[in-house]
Amino acid sequence: MTKRQRAKYLDEQQEDLLALPTESKKRKLTQEEVALRRAEVLRKREQQRKKRQDDIHRETIDRLLKKKPPTRKSKKATAAAAATAAAATEDDEQRYISNGSGSTLSLPPDMSNHTRYRYPPPIATCSAPGCSQLRKYRHSRTQQPVCSLEHYRLLDAAVQAK
Ligand SMILES: [Zn+2]
Fold first, then answer.
1. Of 27, 54, 114, 152, whose CB count within 10 A is highest?
2. Measured between alpha carbons, how far is 35 from 121 in angstroms, rounded to an integer?
């Protein structure tokens, strides 16, 4: 450290030391005051907590006991939900609706009658004469089912001849 640096360093040290007493200039609360203030904060916090708990408690009881008579708006909502449910049944759709007026599950009147529940159509057999193999391909032009490339060509030749 040069002489100048040393002087500057000491100056800063001095300033730090001088700065400290200002902290203690703040009015010191007595231990009793601190305790009182802390107790007050705790009391208020506890009060708020209790109030919140009471509110939740009361709201829950209200919700469980008092079923509000349906307002015009909720009547409308119920009607809308019923209409949607009816439409869903007409569509033979399974539909689950959940809204403010409750939840409904709509099923088609006869589920077995619905195309969605039918077995897939049987696989066609080859259209080459005398062949009963199951279809693997379809002729590109006639859409006739064929079992193999061999029979595809056979069918193709017949088409070409026409
Ligand atoms: Zn065939």
1. 152
2. 86
- Distance separating alpha carbons of residues 58 and 55, to the nearest angstrom: 5
Residue 40 has pLDDT above 80, yes or no: yes
CA 30–ligand 1 middle distance (angstroms): 106
Distance from the alpha carbon of residue 153 to the mean position of ligand 1, in angstroms: 10
What is the Cα–Cα distance from 147 to 154, expressed in whole angstroms? 11
Alpha-carbon distance 21 to 90, whole Å? 86
Q: What is the pLDDT of residues 84-99, one digit of tens each?
A: 666 655 555 667 778 8
Between the CA of 160 and the centroid of ligand 1 the distance, in Å, is 18
**Verdict on whether the full-model pTM lies above 0.70:** no
